[in-house]
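Researcher: Here's the sequence for the chain we discussed earlier.
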Amino acid sequence: MAITVPPPTSSTPSSPTCGPSTFPTTTEDDRLRAERYQVEASRRALRGETDDFASFLDKLQLEIDLQPLDAATLERAIQLGRRTNQFHLRPSTLDGIALDQFARRPGHEVWTATVRDRFGDYGQVGGLVLRHDGATLEVINWMLSCRVLGRGVEQRLVQWLADRCEQLGCTSVMLVAEHTPRNVPARRLVAALGGGDVDNQRLAVTASPAQLRELRFLDRGDELDS
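Model: Thanks. This is the structure I predict for it:
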């Protein structure tokens, strides 16, 4: 499992260089969707052949690339904000205007996550909106496409949050999950970190980087209705 990020820096990622789009756009992710459906059959076959869930994750050989939001990833980020409802910590309107404002605001960062494994490319499947204020790095929003749930991506991104927290000179990370009818996967993660019962209307946790790295979250998201 590998995570690729830009060289460590305490600076806020730059904002997109183009203005937010207000019209539906066909993204590269849309164009590759049919191919990904075919590749997914190979992953499910491997899942069926592997009894141990942790071994299945190891065999996938996941790679995650995290990059600051830019003009090339903006449209897909807008699309994720509109479509994602299972792994979404604080469901809200993340259109181009909101994402651009977050990216430009001092003390805020917007990151995108692209994932691939031994079978192929999942594409741009995630986004995180962060705010660092004093000693705390707050996860304002975090969304993941259902296509990578149950692949170990959630735990790896928690570990990345621990790293980012330290790079920014913070000592803790705060995550809040607001209850919606379908965001059980997001609430499960915050509950696993000690944020409260998964059925609560609001779950919240503040954890140190060391505590985040101790998390073992093997949620079988591929068994969820997506």
